[in-house]
Amino acid sequence: MGTVVLGTGSCLPKKVLTNVELESMVDTSAEWIQTRTGIETRRIGGKGEKTYQLATKAAEKALAAAGVSAEELDLVVVGTISSHMLMPSSACYVQKELGATNAFAFDLNAACSGFLYGLDLADKYIRANHDMKVLVIGAETLSGRLNWQDRNTCILFGDGAGAAVCGYSDSDRGVIGSSMHSDGSLWKLLYMHAPESSNPDLIVKGNNGAYIQMEGREVFKHAVRAMEDAVTRLLVKENIDKESISLVIPHQANMRILAKLVDRLDFPQSKVFINVSKYGNTSAASIPIALDEANSSGLITQGDTILFCSFGGGFTWGATLIKW
Ligand code: ACO
Questions:
Q1: Are 186 and 223 in contact (CB under 8 A)?
Q2: Shortest-distance Cα residue to atom 2 of ligand 1
Q3: How many angstroms separate the alpha carbon of residue 215 from the centre of ligand 1?
Q4: CB within 8 Å of 153: residues ≥ 6 apart
Q5: Per-residue pLDDT tens digits for 234-266
Q6: At the fourth CATH level, which superfamily is domain 175-323?
Q7: Is 251 a catalytic residue?
Q8: pTM of the prediction?
Q9: pLDDT at 1 > cutoff 80
Q10: Residue of minimum CA distance from atom 26 in ligand 1
């Protein structure tokens, strides 16, 4: 009995950027990228593919799959760190584009954990009011927030959007539980400045651009540890054994993080959905894109127990269990 996903959708930009193409843009090699990250291609937003536009297309598909009209939505939440505007939010743009005239809308900044935080929020709203329909989206165009001269970061990320329409079911299905965490003290390991302040007293020293900056090795270690911890805590809290999980949909950071995590959690590879080789790390969009691909390719059946886990800048991380 609880919050169920009524429909999913996703949207990827048309332009594909390969590792070989990156060789001519920055000091790297296709072989290095492939072996260190498992990423082969990523999508790059073009004209008509801003964050809110990708988000709207993903949402339209999710609404159609759910059989829910835009007017029936009560809330639109967009997890993103790459809106084309600081104000209004991408969520307000999506609300306008969809014609979701009865919904309130806001963005949620939790980096790669944006979708899971949004799903958690939807679950809390829906538990409090069973009539609510909540659209949760993860959408990014991080291609516009990368320093394309920085080989440590620009090879990792890609653009895209994924969406889920959530509502209430009085069956035995729904969100089982979640375990959400943050640690702001470690922000310096992964961050992105805002555009420089116009108030001289508030100018941040060392603001060398609104780009993603990262200590890759440290992020790697924290990501594996944190996701392992969140999953372990959640399984204990909900008294669920690993064997009863049908599918794990982790944040698609990179292949090596995922391999280490799966190894530490001792999950069979066959139960873990991975598409990072095609899209790279799409931050808040990675889990809903993966969910939509798994869902539309028939990998998820009603009654399955699905586990999600994420980690991102902040740091933010968490895990969610849902009976589909
Ligand atoms: N091409 C070629 N060489 C490179 C590149 C590149 N694109 N990037 C770094 N190198 C070089 C480094 O300069 C270094 O050279 P040096 O030994 O001469 O100094 C060498 O490769 C090794 O660098 P490391 O940083 O130690 O490489 P590592 O094996 O740790 O791999 C990577 C780097 C892929 C970034 C890894 O640390 C990682 O996966 N970190 C996690 C980062 C991540 O996923 N962030 C996403 C946001 S958070 C999240 O989503 C979980």
A1: no
A2: 28
A3: 8
A4: 146, 147, 211, 212, 213, 214
A5: 999 999 999 999 999 999 999 999 999 999 999
A6: Thiolase/Chalcone synthase (3.40.47.10)
A7: yes
A8: 0.97
A9: no
A10: 217
